[in-house]
Specification:
By secondary structure, the chain is of the alpha+beta class. A four-stranded antiparallel β-sheet has the order 2-3-1-4, with helices on one face. It is globular and about 30 Å long.
Amino acid sequence: MPAYIISEVSEVVDAAAMERYRALAEVTIKQYGGRYVVRGGVWEGLEGEWALERTIVVEFPSWEQAKAWYRSPEYAPARELSRVPLKRKMLMVEGAP
């Protein structure tokens, strides 16, 4: 069953650092079998209040692969770098069978 990492970015504080993060993250996501399903783009709130700048959704083949990516030594430098340019929330969810 697939698993998804969902990032809700409320603010990009440093655009140049964010681009460095994106490049590092993309390489590691592919390395762990992930693929972008949503990467920014136009959005419209339909219900409730939303305070975000962009949404990113990455699909992994399994829960284990998603967790392995997030905790991997390959992603660690990107994760650390993301703390500077982005204000975000991130979660992992299991996909439907």
